[in-house]
Amino acid sequence: MRVMELEKNVYHGALSFFHRDVLNLYAKMKRKHAMNDVTDLLHYCEVAKNENPKFHYAYTIDEERRLENIFLSSAPCFDWYKKYGNAVVFYITYRVNAYDMPFSIFVGVNNHGRTILFGCALLRNETSKTF
Questions:
Q1: Among residues 5, 43, 108, 122, which one has the fewest Cβ atoms lying within 10 Å of its Cβ?
Q2: By C-alpha distance, which of 117, 114, 115 is closest to 106?
Q3: Greatest CA separation found in the chain?
């Protein structure tokens, strides 16, 4: 609130809304975006694929039409994999995101000894079929 007061150059308490109003708006926006986040992600992937054919993504949907798994690899990541993909490290976090889904990354090392990202995935579960 103080930042907004300073931005508008008004004294403390002179804004036409309260701190609670800001929190309510934030919660409303968060709920709105939470309902469309998978749709937005898939739309982003389609646009990125149309703009650059080297962008790769794949996903599966379960019986209830919910996102089950998704894999993403941007164009530079794809090129790096082709060049440095002879050794790949697969790392998985354990359900530390808002969706309670394991998040995995595929990384490697370039010729300068720096870690590079090849791709990432969100997984519904950790079964052998998923991997």
A1: 43
A2: 117
A3: 62
Torsion region of 7: left, alpha or beta (phi above 0 gives left; psi -120 to 50 gives alpha)? alpha
Are 69 and 26 found together in one domain? no
81 vs 88: CA distance, rounded Å: 9
CB 21 within 8 A of CB 29: no
Q: What is the pLDDT of residues 29-50, one digit of tens each?
A: 766 666 678 888 899 999 999 9
pTM attached to this predicted model = 0.65
Identify whether 42 is part of a domain.
no
CA 26 to chain centre: 20
- C-alpha to C-alpha distance for 122 and 32, rounded to whole angstroms: 21
The total number of structural domains in the chain stands at 2
- List beta partners, residue 75: none
Closest CA to 122 of 87, 99, 62: 99
